[in-house]
Design brief:
It contains four helices and three strands. With 81 residues, the chain is an alpha+beta fold. It is globular and about 35 Å long.
C-alpha cells in the first residue's frame, strides 16, 4: 500500500524522503501512519525494482539531499485499472 502512495506522490513531482513523509502525513495518515524509516525502506525497494530513480543534490553547509523521481515503469505501476 505504501509503495502505491509514494509512486502516486512522485507522479506529481520529484521529492525527497522528508517531502514524502510530509505528503503522507497530510494525505493518508487517517488510514496509514508511515514512519520515516518505512518510507526510506520502501524508496530503496522501489529504486531496486526500477520504479523510481534518485539523485543527490549538494547543498552548502548542509547534508546532500536525495531526490526521488518516478521512472516510466513506475508510472505504469502507479495507476490502477
Amino acid at each position: 500500500m505504501l509503495k502505491f502512495a509514494l509512486l502516486g506522490a512522485l507522479s506529481y513531482q520529484p521529492m525527497s524522503g522528508y517531502d514524502l513523509k510530509q505528503f503522507t502525513d497530510r494525505s493518508i495518515s487517517n488510514f496509514w501512519h508511515a514512519e520515516l524509516s518505512q518510507i526510506y525502506v520502501t524508496l530503496k525497494a522501489l529504486e531496486k525494482d526500477g520504479l523510481i530513480t534518485s539523485s543527490s543534490i549538494s547543498r552548502a553547509k548542509r547534508p546532500d539531499r536525495r531526490v526521488y523521481t518516478i521512472a516510466e515503469n513506475g508510472k505504469q505501476h502507479s495507476t490502477i485499472g
